[in-house]
Design a protein that fits this description.
alpha+beta; 5-stranded antiparallel sheet; single chain; 8-stranded mixed sheet
Length: about 475
Amino acid sequence: MIQCDIVIAGAGVIGSAVARELSRFEGSIAVLEKNADVCEGTSKANSAIIHAGFDAEPGTWKAKMNVRGNEKMDKLAEELDIPFQRCGAFVVCLHEEELPKLKELYERGLANGVPGLKLLNREEALALEPNLSDAVCGALLAETSGIVCPFELTLGLAENAAMNGAQFYFETQITGLERREDGWLVKTSGEDFLAKAVVNAAGVHSDELHNLVCENKLHVASRKGEYCLLDKTAGQHVSHTIFQLPGKYGKGVLVSPTVHGNLLLGPTAADIEDREETKTTAEGLGEVLEKSALGVRNIPTRQVITSFTGLRAHEAGDDFVLGETAEGFFDAAGIESPGLSSASAIGEYLAALIAEKLQLARKENFQPIRRGVPRLHDMPAEQRKAYIEKNPAYGNIICRCEQVSEGEILDAIHGVLGAKTLDGVKRRTRAGMGRCQSGFCSPRVMELLARELSLDLREIRKNEKGSEIVLEKTRG
């Protein structure tokens, strides 16, 4: 049995944010993740938006955490060495009779303390975004909204937590929780843990952990959303994130640039029973293309390079569930949008509660700076040349679409919480995220993983167990 002060269930963006904030204090932290890597669950597929905070009802956890998380993003991105752009967002109104709803959003944003909100008429909106639909009759502009890479944010938080002492245990699924006099016995698929406090950051499974120990039961629905990603040649079609007026199932289908220069469309919204179902469907992707065209015209949909599905943890109360809900048991449950925007604020809030509960002292040597895998393609020529002279592997291009070198992939494999799978390399370096979607580079990445981790090619996986790619040798 492993003894520690705090067990965190889940290494998604919320669990990683809580781990990072707790690593500011003297205390032992164990992060348990059922998947093979950071950011394999809910956090891996979302809209990558740092929302301004105008949408949530004033006074809710969603409103408070969103606004605080947005405020923290500039400093956080600098500390963690991750891309972040405050590109701003539009909420467009397509029907004259719904303009009062736009005004309601504006006033809600003011009540939440969101700066940089402006109501625009049709002409003002089109002047800033010429490709808006002809049906647009007004818009709300939120200047503080931004875009981020959800993989890099989650990895940055997790790696920085690990640098400061947090221990991560992958392929370790929690199977039971038992309250004892000396803390929580956390039963897992591997070794058991004994902790003074438990943090529930289990995404779409957060109600399952909560309901094991709390009298007040939760119900989390798995809300499925499908997306289309377009090539970088379409990345300049809009310069802001374009939302339509939100409806029953959230903010609707958006059109947004990404921090890497692509164009993103989605998501749909449908509650499903299977909490692991991430298949795309012809019907869902058709809905994405149809609804995105309502707010933005002439979207070059022939440039779609991939599609994917994300799951959101929608709690029946329609708000985040945060705080100590049983003795020594802390919830971060029902975290859906704006969860990515709120992650650092949720981490800050829960870490403060737990540190006070356990009487943890602040570290004097906390290191907030983390550096990611160097991105040679984005460097000035002289800097890139210096890297290659120091290590020729940086001059060997493995992924042609994204111009990712062997040196960058080796850094990803051997870094803090290093990559062990194809998806792990992809999320750390973008190898395989370009136009050909791994068609050229995946065999070469597999060879590097096998060589560096001393594995047989048949052991190399896309992600989880059962996703091995090479089944047998056909020649000796």
